[in-house]
Design brief:
This protein is of the alpha/beta class and about 210 residues long. The protein is built from six helices and 13 strands. Bound molecules: 1-O-pyrophosphono-5-O-phosphono-alpha-D-ribofuranose (PRP) and uracil.
Amino acid sequence: MDNIFIMDHPLIKHKISRLRDKSTGTNEFRNLVNEIAMLMGYEALRDLPLMDVEVETPIEKCMTPVIAGRKLAIVPILRAGLGMTNGILELVPTAKVGHIGLYRDEETHEPHEYYCKLPSPINERTIVVTDPMLATGGSAISAVNFIKQHGGVNIKFMCIIAAPEGIEKLHKAHPDIQIYIGNVDRELNENAYICPGLGDAGDRIFGTK
Ligand code: PRP
Ligand code: URA
């Protein structure tokens, strides 16, 4: 499908397997989420525009490319998306960071919004929305709706694990955004958890539960 990019790098596969293991502790889990975000960011940001600037090397002056034009905004979906932010900031330290607070109702699995703040002007930025888990797709769709309502145009969604149902729903709702996925898992269970998945990403990143 157009605009859907599934990672095939062995380092990402290895790190996702470590995330899945229920005996992986909070500190290792958090570090792995950031490392995977950095590796995926390298892939997702390969279309950042460049412009030539003049630099003087110890040998001579030359024209050489730097990141140009539209600046980057990272927008984690709270809580778990926060775990991916620093990995991308390592790649682009000048990026601005917005936040979208959503939680899933345990019964209906519908997302509920509790906080939203975006850097402005959002319409001039490349926006990377982060959330380790794309399950039913409800949270990702709400987050992208909110960003578009505030003028965001160039939007990428980055997740570590996705269920086929969530990918289809997000792509149908927002066919214009690029979706970067670490791994596509088998299915959702009756509680809308991804199988085999890695459990509750927010709880595992922050050591709650
Ligand atoms: C999790 C996850 C996503 C969402 C995915 O968050 O981090 O945001 O569920 O599910 P969906 O695709 O079915 O919407 P959760 O609501 O558990 O909140 P938390 O990050 O605060 O734990
Ligand atoms: N949210 C999670 O954290 N994990 C899942 O498997 C589904 C939604």
